[in-house]
Design goal:
About 15% of the residues lie in helices and about 45% in strands. The relative contact order is 0.15. It has one helix at about 5-20; strands at about 25-30, 35, 45-50, 55-60, 65-70, 75-80, 80-85, 85-90, 100-105, 110-115, 120-130, 130-135, 140-145, 150. It is built from 1 helix and 14 strands, in the order αββββββββββββββ. It has a 5-stranded antiparallel beta sheet with strand order 6-5-4-1-7. It folds into 2 domains: about 20-85, Roll (SH3 type barrels); about 90-150, SH3 Domains (SH3 type barrels). The protein is mainly beta and about 150 residues long.
Length: about 150
């Protein structure tokens, strides 16, 4: 085997490992976490994010994650300010102001236990047949049609 093939054999798995890491979902761990314009504290704060806000990792530079939110905005957060606990955000009805239903069981015939607006963040507890069991705070738990959420 030539040195060229050996290096290609090493480089490709490393490249693939970086890509897999960069294609994951994480959530913000803590309140008032800074989303920055670049990978470091010297970069401007674009906005603040609160606990559970789901983000997609699109790049990595050292301990910094380049991330994208459900509206397509990008920025950077420190890896230590994120968590792996799955969360999702309501992506439906942005312009209408209508609410989505949170149901007692994973079907459209079950009772509505709560309603949620665009942008509401839920902790994901379970997935079943296109439905997602979610939790919000201490008192809201139920099922949402997965097509209405982002971050899964």
């Amino acid at each position: 085997m030539s040195m060229r093939h050996l290096l290609a054999g090493i480089a490709f798995p490393l490249l693939l490992a970086s890509w897999v890491t960069a294609a994951e979902m994480v959530a913000i761990a803590g309140d008032d976490i800074n989303m920055r314009s670049g990978p470091g504290t010297e970069h401007a704060i674009l906005w603040k994010l609160d606990s559970g806000f789901p983000i997609e990792v699109v790049g990595v530079k050292g301990e910094w994650l380049q991330v994208k939110d459900f509206e397509g905005s990008t920025g950077w957060v420190h890896k230590k300010t994120t968590q792996k606990t799955p969360h999702a955000i309501v992506k439906a009805n942005k312009e209408t102001g209508q609410q989505i239903n949170v149901r007692s069981e994973p079907d459209t015939k079950s009772a509505v236990v709560a309603k949620a607006n665009y942008g509401v963040v839920f902790k994901v507890l379970e997935k079943k047949d296109g439905w997602v069991k979610v939790e919000h705070g201490q008192d809201v738990r139920g099922w949402v049609d997965g097509r209405l959420l982002w971050g899964l």
